[in-house]
Design a protein that fits this description.
Oligomer: single chain
Order of helices and strands: HHHHHHHHH
Largest sheet: none
Distance between the termini: 65 Å
Number of helices: 9
Number of strands: 0
Structural class: mainly alpha
Length: 239
């Protein structure tokens, strides 16, 4: 029996893996988006704690960024997945359930990616806030703006403008980190490529296609972020 060709394997017809790879790509994007949004929320509060919080808040924020930036991302995923499964199983036993209860891989992966990216986004937002000229804030105060209005009209837009390049870099990292979630059994792109490679005995074909899909997603999202950066930088004089 002849071995199927490259195009036959990745096709959408009978015996092809095109549909599975596309479904895996969609799952990859969902994990990356959820993780990035979770990280953005954490990063916002973390940066606020470092810039405007008291000594206790700064201590916890510094500890969070130091720990999460200092341990491997794969280890964080393991801790969330296996630790979450152990916690859910213990709660189930208290409620009268027997046996092991697995923590959802998608949830564990999204939380782990969000927690790790949150440490990076904390520093991005902190640096962006520091880049806001103090004179612009003083001018807003002189105009009689309240603290909430100053934040909404001056601080937040300027901070976002300075943070966008760093957030673009974090997004690219998050997109690649989503491949690590395959260890939880989630059928994202790399997992689908692994299954297809094992089923057909054609690993190179599947991994080269997976790499091309990752590159396409990264390139498209990078272009969107660059367009957003240009939009928010309109009217800004460049050196």
């Amino acid at each position: 029996m002849n071995q199927p060709g490259f195009l036959d394997v990745i096709s959408f017809g009978p015996g092809g893996w095109g549909g599975a790879l596309v479904a895996g790509a969609v799952m990859t994007i969902l994990i990356a988006l959820c993780g990035f949004m979770i990280g953005s929320i954490i990063g916002t509060f973390g940066a606020w704690a470092k810039v405007s919080g008291g000594r206790t808040l700064r201590f916890f924020a510094d500890g969070y960024t130091t720990i999460l930036r200092g341990i491997p991302d794969l280890l964080v995923i393991y801790l969330f997945y296996f630790g979450g499964s152990a916690a859910v199983t213990a709660i189930g036993r208290l409620l009268g359930s027997d046996g092991f209860i697995g923590f959802p891989g998608f949830l564990a992966g999204s939380l782990a990616v969000g927690i790790t990216s949150g440490a990076q986004q904390t520093e991005v937002f902190r640096g962006a806030f520091r880049a806001v000229q103090h004179g612009e804030i003083e001018a807003a105060i002189a105009c009689g703006m309240s603290r909430a209005l100053r934040f909404r009209r001056i601080i937040a837009p300027l901070t976002l403008r300075h943070a966008l390049p760093g957030m673009g870099n974090v997004w690219q990292v998050v997109l690649k980190e989503s491949a690590l979630v395959s260890i939880t059994g989630v059928a994202e792109l790399l997992r689908q490529a692994q299954v297809g490679a094992g089923s057909t005995g054609m690993p190179f074909n599947f991994y080269i296609v997976a790499g091309a899909i990752y590159l396409a997603i990264s390139t498209f999202s990078g272009a969107v972020l660059q367009r957003s950066e240009r939009h928010f930088s309109r009217g800004v004089r460049r050196s």
